[in-house]
Amino acid sequence: MKILKWFLFVIILFALLIAGYLAYLGVFNSLTVSEKVMDPYTIAAERFVGPYSKTGEVFNKVHSTLRIAGVNGTLGLGIYYDDPQTVPADKLRSDCGEVINPKDTVKLKIFKELKIMTINKSRAVITEFTIKSPLSYMVGPMKAYPALVAYIQKNNLKINSAMYEIYDMPENKIIYVVPIK
């Protein structure tokens, strides 16, 4: 009987630790969704086709290329063109990069794999999620996109272009952005 009690104690302790970690990550927090006019951004990015879960490698490659060119940025930016619930993982399209100063585009001309893009100023529906660990990059979309879609549907809004995510490393947050008409 003692072994059963000990086993039950360990199971309960383990469940509490997992619940505590999930709470720390923000799994149980509700997100605030709002409308905002987003500034324009110039980004240096690389196109990636494949599972969104594999984009981290592309972001790291772009980051390294920018540092070699002497370009420093603090905001990562990923543009996600396809809905992973309707498009096969190996066909998902994204652009992975960093926000750069427009004057730095000259330094990047020699890096043919990078494309320079401009995201125009736009009205958008946004929400933010705090980065607390590498798992935040998986938990964030699971929380953010349902909240954004619900807001868009509730307010009868129309999506204008591809969704994007801004990775604000100094502020430890991800900003999820859905441009609207």
Helix and strand pattern: HEEHEEEEHEE
In the predicted model, the low-confidence regions spanning at least 5 consecutive residues are none
- Overall pLDDT metric: 91
Q: For the largest beta sheet, what order do the strands appear in spatially?
A: 1-6-8-7-3-4-2-5
> How many strand elements?
8
The CATH architecture of the largest domain is: Alpha-Beta Barrel
Largest sheet: 8 strands, antiparallel
Topology-level CATH name of the largest domain? Multidrug-efflux Transporter 1 Regulator Bmrr, Chain A
Structural class: alpha+beta
Number of helices: 3
The percentage helix is: 25-40%
Name given to the CATH homologous superfamily of the largest domain = Regulatory factor, effector binding domain
Quaternary form:
single chain
Q: Give the domain tally.
A: 2
Radius of gyration: 20 Å
Kindly report how far apart the N and C termini lie: 65 Å
Roughly what fraction of the amino acids lie in strands? 25-35%
CATH class value of the largest domain? Alpha Beta
Quick one: overall form?
globular
